[in-house]
């Protein structure tokens, strides 16, 4: 799985591309705009999954008994 920083960088690039394409096409429903938006949505879901995994790992670590 990609690391969080790389996903955030990709999302930022897609966001810029989305804005530029929507402005150039003059429509938020243009097929190219929608395709970019869907790609951004997939990255957002991947980021949410990473955050969930991190939180689960942190909580699991917190519940481990400390060595005596």
From TrEMBL:
Q: Which domain of life is it from?
A: Bacteria
Q: Which Pfam families match?
A: SpoOE-like
Signal sequence range: none
Q: What is this protein called?
A: Spo0E family sporulation regulatory protein-aspartic acid phosphatase
